[in-house]
Amino acid sequence: MSRKAMQVVGLAVTVVMLVLVVAGCAKQDPNKKKLVFAIANDIETLDVQQMYTGYTPHTLLFTPLISLGLSNDNAYPYLAESVEIAADGMSITLVFADDLKFSNGKNCSGQDVLKAIERYRQISPYASDWEEVKEVKAEGQKLTIYFKEPTAYFLPVLSSMYSGIVDVQEAEKLGKEGFGQKPVGIGPYVLKQWVQGSHLVFEKNPYYKDHLPFVKNHGPWAFDEVTVRIIPDNFTRISELEAGNVDVTQVPVEFLDRVKSNSELKVISSVGQGETYLALNTEKAPFSSRDFRLALNYAINKDEIKSAWMGSVEPIYGLVSPSQLAYSEETEKELRSKMKYDLQRARTILAELGCKDTDGDGYLEKDGKKLSFTLLGTSAQKVPLTVIQNQLKAVGIEVKIQEQAASYVRQAVQDRNYDMALRSWSWPDPDIWYYSFHSSMGKDSIWNSPELDKLLEEQRKIVDPKARAAKWGEISRKIAEDVPFIPLYYSYNYTAVRSNIEGYQVSVSGAIYWNDAVKK
Q1: Cα–Cα distance list, 145 to 4, 66, 404, 460, 515 (Å)
Q2: Number of folded domains in the chain?
Q3: In this predicted structure, what is the pLDDT of residue 14?
Q4: 160 and 302, same domain (yes or no)
Q5: Between the N and C ends of the chain, which has fewer C-beta atoms within 10 Å?
Q6: Residue % of the chain over a pLDDT of 90
C-alpha cells in the first residue's frame, strides 16, 4: 500500500474547504476564513518526492501538473497552462504560465520544473514511473516528455500529487530531512506550523494560480488558514465533527448512518481505485508454502467481511477494481469462481500438509509448532482484522491482532518482519502493482519472478484499453496461481462535509475540487 496506498491507500484522500467573502458585509465571521480538517494517519514527511503515501497536507502544498477531469476521461491543464499529447503517443508537452511562482515568491521556469523532475527520478520511491521516459526537454516555459515507446500508465502519474513541483534549490539547501519538514512547492497553501502527531496549520499562498478548465476561480483560494488535525481514533474524530470542531473528514462505515442523519453534515461517496489485500510473509515458513497460502485463501470469506462492514466494501479476487483503468469483469468472474471461499477445501489442504490438533486446544500444530501468527493492521481496519481472525480460527489457526500506524505496517512488510498484514492502496491505474512485484523494486517487491517481470513490463506499453485489460487478466491469473497474497476487497469511500460549505465539485473517482467553494 502505500501510495499511491494505498496501501492507497489509502488513498482515498480529501483536500481543503474554502470560504468566499460576501461582498458588502460589515463584519465577517472569522470562522468563515478558516477550515479544520481531520485525518486518521500521521505524516512522515511533507516532501512529495520522498513520501510513500499522500494525505491532505500534501494536496495543500503541491498541485498536480494535470487533471484527469471530473469524469476521469482526458488530460486537462492544472498547474500546467496547457497539455498536449502527441497523436502517436510518443510525447506529452506541457506549457507553464510566464508568471508561475513557487510559494516563496520565486519565479518558476521550465528549467526549474525539469530540475524537480530530475530530483524525483533520483530519490522518489516511485522513480520507476519515469523509466519509459527517453528524454525531458525544457524550452522557456515549455516542457516536453519523450517516451521510448507509447506509455499507457503515465497520465495518472502526471495527475497525482506526487508530480507536484518542488523548489530544488531550497531542497538542496535544507537537505532531505529539513525539506521534508518545511517544503517549498507550488500549491494553494504554505506550511505555517507542524506539531507532529497533533496538527498542521497552513496559510494561503498569495502567488497561487492554476488552470483547471471546469472551475471559475484560478487564483488564491479564499481561506486564510487551514488546520489539519491528526485524530487516529474513529470515535473521537467523528465526535469532533459533530461538535463543529472539524469541517471535513472521512467517515468510517460504522458511523455512516449517524453522520447521514445529521442535518449539519453532507456525505460524499465514491468507489475506491485500488484494493486491500492480506500480505503474507512468503520468506517465512509456513507462508513459504504455496499450498499453505492457498489454504488461507479458501478459509477467508470475503462476503462476510462485506456484511460485517455493512456493505461498505466489495469482495475482489483479481488485481484491478472496477473504477480503475484496465478492469475486466470477465477476469474477475473467472477468479471468483476459482478462488472463492471453500472451508472444507481449506481444511483438506491443511490436513494434507500434516497440520493436526494434537493437544485438543482447537488449534493446529505443524512440525510440533502451534499455528499461531500475528496479523498487522491499522485502527481503521478493526472490522476485517476481527473477521479474518475468527475465520482462520475456524480452520485451527490462531491469529493475534496487532494494531499499528500505517507507516509501521508498511515498514514491517518491507523489512519482512511480520507474519500477515493488511495493506491497501489507491491509484487510478493498476500499474501501481509494478512496485509490489517487479524484481527491480528490491525490498518493496513482495513477490517476483522473470515471468511476472515480463508481464508487468509488457502492460506498460499497451495503449489499447481492451488489450491492456487482457494483459492484466494474465497478471491476475498468475498471482492467483502463486498466491503470494490474498486480494480481499475494494472500498466505498465516504467523506463528511459541513452543510454550509457549497460550490465544490466531485469527480467520479471521489477527487474533490474546492476552487469555487464557499462557506455560507
Answers
A1: 22, 14, 40, 16, 28
A2: 2
A3: 37
A4: no
A5: C
A6: 76
User: Residue with C-alpha cell 466505498?
Assistant: 492
pLDDT digit string, tens, across residues 451-476: 999 999 999 888 888 899 999 999 99
| Cα angle, residue 115 at apex, residues 109 and 117 outer, rounded to 5° | 110
Query: Which secondary structure element, helix H or strand E, spans residue 467, and what is its range?
Result: helix 465-482
Q: For 433, how many CA atoms within 13 A lie in the half-sphere containing its CB?
A: 30
Beta strand 420-426 pairing with 274-280: antiparallel
Strands 225-230 and 34-39: parallel
Q: Are residues 310 and 224 in the same domain?
A: no
CB proximity list for 31: less than 8 A, separation 6 or greater: none
Of 161, 195, 230, which one is at a domain's C-terminal end? 230
C-alpha cell at 361: 486446544
483: its cell numbers = 498466491
Q: Is the pLDDT of residue 2 over 70?
A: no
Dihedrals phi, psi of 226, to nearest 5 degrees:
-125, 130
Q: Cα–Cα distance between 43 and 259 in angstroms, integer?
A: 26
CA neighbours within 13 Å on the CB side: how many for 254? 13
Average pLDDT over residues 271-287: 94
Q: Which of 110, 103, 107 lies closest to 208 in space, CA to CA?
A: 103
In 127-171, the DSSP E strands lie at 133-139, 142-147
**Rounded Cα distance, 406 and 49, in Å:** 19
The yes-or-no verdict on residue 20 having pLDDT over 80 is no
Asked whether residue 500 is assigned to any structural domain, the reply reads no
Name the residue range of residue 389's domain. 274-493
Residue 237 inside a domain? The answer is no
Band (pLDDT 50/70/90 cuts) for residue 27 is low
Cell of 127: 522513480
**How does pLDDT run across 332-349, given as a tens digit for each residue?**
999 999 999 999 999 999
Q: Which of 409, 412, 406, 343 is nearest to 380 (CA)?
A: 406
CA distance 506 to 493: 13
Q: Which residues on neighbouring strands pair with residue 424, listed in sequence order?
A: 276
The DSSP element (H or E) to which 375 belongs, if any, is: strand 372-377
- The confidence score (pLDDT) of residue 32 equals 78
Among 302-306, 308-312, 384-388, the range scoring the smallest mean pLDDT is 308-312
Query: Rounded to two decimals, what is the model's pTM?
Result: 0.74
Rounded to the nearest 5°, which phi and psi values hold at 433? Answer: -65, -20
